[in-house]
Amino acid sequence: MNSAATGFAAIRARIEAAARAAGHPARLLAVSKTQAAAAVRGLAGLGQRAFGENYVQEAIAKQRELADLDLEWHLIGPLQSNKCREAARHFAWLQSLDRAKLVAPLARHRPAHLPPLQVLIQVNIDDEASKSGCRPGEVAALAAAIAAEPRLSLRGLMAISAPHPEATRRAAAFGRMQALFEHLRTEHTAVDTLSMGMSDDFELAIAHGATLVRIGTALFGPRRTAPAE
Fold first, then answer.
1. Is the pLDDT of residue 203 over 90?
2. Terminus of the chain with fewer CB atoms < 10 Å: N or C?
């Protein structure tokens, strides 16, 4: 088994162990932003299907190069208004919806021959000025706007916690997200996805309800230089 396969198997085993301990399933999103299409192909050959990208144009180029593979593409980076058309046409999931003005153009541009765009609301759970995401108090209204659009499917929430060195502070943020998620589920029965946790804290996130963890560095190694959009 080569090093990539060994690393992938180890991450999968850790996710499965954390999910068993938490008593709920959790799946892996391989964050392939800035990585070469060949690296995505290699991981796909090991059985990984879902990949996350930050940059629309970079992702579209990879999708074209990997069109022979049956992959599930997630947009996890901030979405600019002028990218709504491309995002709606080229991704299965949008994890970073954070404002109501994007809802109508995303729905309008989602092609009729594709399933509805699966949408997560990004929450700025630690109120960081440098992070995208709506405030917790804005989730209900944004969720209602998404749920009203037939070409969009509200699936849950996403967050990027602040990189606190103390695990207790990260755990507190994850706990706040879990509470928001559980409340949202009482209002929208299709909600089933809580995306949080990355390479250095995904097990802690799963312990606090994460059903989808976003892992890049632990799978691919250090990021390459980000492309210009």
1. yes
2. N
